[in-house]
Amino acid sequence: MSSSVCLPEEDLSCPVCCEIFRDPVLLPCSHSFCKTCLQCYWNTSALRQCPVCRRRASKRTPPSNLALKNLCEALQQGRIQSSAEGNSVLCSLHGERLRFFCLVDKQPVCVVCQASKIHKNHDCVPTEKAAQDCKNQALETERQIKDLFVELHQFLYDEEAARLAALKEEEEEKIGLMNSTVTKAAAGMLYLKETITVITQEITDAEDMTLLRNFKATIERAQCTGQGPERISGALIDVAKHLCNLKYRVWKKMLLHVENTPVTLDPNTAHPCLFLVT
Asked: Start and end of every RING-type domain (predicted)?
């Protein structure tokens, strides 16, 4: 309470609503009430009397208790000032602590706001519970986001592994083909070398008549024993097959993967009875 208001807070509270007076009026019996509270009480009562002492009141409109009104306004102002200094949050309309959170209007309200016509039929929960629910919802949403990205990362890792495996398989295939070709070429060269050695030896050791007699066969052997190097078809890696439109192909495949993800409705805006049928 403000230092300028020395009365106990109970003396500044309406006997009907038990809150700080709002537009207090004074009855002839000296009891004061909120103007709205007194009018509501009289609307539901058969007699126009004081809610405290039951003394009959006149039909005239009760006068405002200006002194009490000033004290209550000073108290409310002191609360607001204390709120600003101490980081305590009070209602700007009623000066009461914001103890509840309206789930319909998504805003904190005080006990007076909760009972007002604006929020009367709205679902309100304590601010502590609303804050905890908000934290839980944020944590759950964070978990779902992380799970989705883990799934996407795993998809990309699997695609990378598949592409590298295909490249490795082609590499081993081409290396095997080249090794086979080199082996065949080496065998052919060895055969030619041996043939040259044999023919040279025959020419060197043969007598003239024998050399002449076998000359035709020797020439034919020398001409038919060699073939040119075999041309290897597709010996190099097919780079275009692995890199051409790689991003597009992976994106297209990932799009099919993403399309299978179920639609999640926003619990803050979607009707609780709304559901989707696929």
From this structure: 14-54
